[in-house]
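Review form for a predicted model. The reviewer records the input and the model, then writes brief findings.
Reviewer: anonymous (R2)
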Amino acid sequence: MASVLGLTDTAAEISGEIADAVDIDAAVEIGFVKRAYRRGTAGIRFRTAAWKFLRPQEPHWDDLKALAKSVGADHMNLPAFCGRLRDECNEIVREHSDLKRWVCRRLALLDAVVVSRKLDRSRRDEVFALRNALSDCTELLVTDPAEATYLSENLCQAAILGAGNAVVDAIAEVAGLNANLMFSVPCGYRVSGSAERLANQDRADRLWQNVGDHTHRLVVLAESTGASHVGFWVPVIPSGPGVRLPGATEAIAGNASLVLKEDLPPLRGFSHQMESDWEAYMQREFNHDLFLSLPVRVPGRSTPVAVLNVNVNVRQETKRHWYRAYGAYWTRQAEEYAWEFLDLALRGMMLVAQRSAGMPALDCGVPRPAAAMLLPASTEVTEP
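Model under review:
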């Protein structure tokens, strides 16, 4: 990062000198002369704007209009200005490849102006089918609770995959993905069931053995079809000055968190051994290019009730687009697009939790099944 800041600081000094010369735009009032001046100086003015945009201070929406004015480009509409500024930033990356990751982070704001990502039309049909499936599961609670539990698990898997696909719709293209839901449980909770789940739990035990004291952890309790993360857990450690654990721990506190394998964020407030263990795990055992952890919020709750993790593989040519997930605009859009699927997944989880042995007590923030439909504890159904 030091080299990045050094380059941007140097560039800022240069751009300040250039900007002094560019300010004469305000004095050029004759129409055809002004147009000719703008065309002749466009390159240097947008290079100046790009270096200003890449300074260490985080840019905001309002800064873009001020930036356009500072280089005499306020006659352009904002999308056109941002598109040209984005092109200039990409030119800087070609000239200074060590700035690539820094520039990609900053382009998230420009992409929010220039790029439009829409929810795929098929998602509506998927939601409709899942709502019908949820209704069927509810009706079966009394007549065939085992079948209801089995169908509820399938519903959860499909809804979680739908949520992952909706997140992709919101942000960028992928080559493949899976997704899972994590819930906060006391540290004493242990998963039961298949050897795979127990192995995931043991893997987490080894990874976090040096993390220190904590009272709760986030455990993967449900996932999309084909994934194999149930049982894996991460500690819940409140973030604060000098303390940061990226991923789900940040998301349960209400902040979306992107973790790229090629650009791992540092752990703060932990031992060198813990940081080394985490980096080794990500490089050797995490079989994806990145993951995005999003808080799962429900109406009426001030804090998230769960975390959605979307594990993604991307093509090299589109990898930079996932840096958008460092921007709040993009993650808010992802949460919005995924919400209907998450609501269905949470409702399905409530059905599963009521019937399956070994599941912790969950408070998902959604209505529980009607009391008349619940079986006595003695008739709990084990996981298929």
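Findings: The two ends are 50 Å apart (CA to CA).
Further findings: Residues 1-28, 371-384 have pLDDT under 50 and may be disordered.
Recommendation: see findings above.
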